Amino acid sequence: MGAYEEKKETCGTICLKYLLFTFNFLFWLAGGVVMAVGVWTLVEKSDYISLLSSKTYAASAYILVLAGAIVMVTGVLGCCATFKEQRRLLRVYFVLLLCIFLLEILAGVLAYIYYQQLNEELKQNLRETMVQKYQQKEQEHVTRAVDKLQQEFKCCGSNSSSDWAESAWIRSIKADGRVVPDSCCKSRTDGCGRRDHPSNVYKVEGGCITKLENFILDHLKIIGAVGVGIACVQIIGMVFTCCLYQSLKAEPY
């Protein structure tokens, strides 16, 4: 009977090992996805980040990159801990899972807070940034971001094209008679901003504020969904880890 119980426990441990190994492989892949989302936000959309006064959006992306990197390292560590059946490694693995879980909660909280204040921030800062910093010395990143924003989202001005009438650049001789930047034009050519007729420039209700707000909100939803998904997977992993740890409790390490 004792031999049967010993065999039964061994089979249970083996099953847990392979379940945890499978989990770690999936977890490692998920870490790559999390890191890719964070890097994509920082690299592909970095121009838009320069238009925001708050650093919360960028901070959420940096947290995702950090969490993704830790997840990938943790996945490898989890595989080692599982096959070597070392309780110390399992404890380290569990602690790392818990740290990643807390990081993702932090990213989620930051994203939610930013979600609530985004509209007010854009109303207060986007127009000021566009009219005061566009085509100004040492503000090339803002100029590039505004041009990209207006071309990609087919909009002109923060609220409307008339916002550009107050632009420091438009009022200067450097504008060369333009009433809006060339990036407002439907068919962009050099000097096309001298004519702001609806047939020539984008006239979008709500202006670029609405377009940028919708874009960031959609992106925050992606960040939130990825974070929640990984967090759910982690909970399963922590349960498996505890079960395997208990099954190895009587064994020396």
UniProtKB/TrEMBL annotation:
Keywords: Cell membrane, Glycoprotein, Lipoprotein, Membrane, Palmitate, Transmembrane, Transmembrane helix, Ubl conjugation. It is found in: Cell membrane; Membrane. GO terms for biological process: cell migration. It is a multi-pass membrane protein. GO terms for cellular component: plasma membrane. SUPFAM superfamilies: Tetraspanin (SSF48652). The chain crosses the membrane at residues 18-40, 60-80, 92-115, 222-245. Pfam families: Tetraspanin. Interacts with integrins ITGA3:ITGB1, ITGA5:ITGB1, ITGA3:ITGB1 and ITGA6:ITGB4 and with CD9 and CD181. Interacts (via the second extracellular domain) with integrin ITGAV:ITGB3. Interacts with ITGA3; this interaction modulates ITGA3 glycosylation pattern. Interacts with F11R. Interacts with RAC1 and CDC42; these interactions mediate physical association of RAC1 and CDC42 with integrin adhesion receptor complexes. Belongs to the tetraspanin (TM4SF) family. This is Tetraspanin.
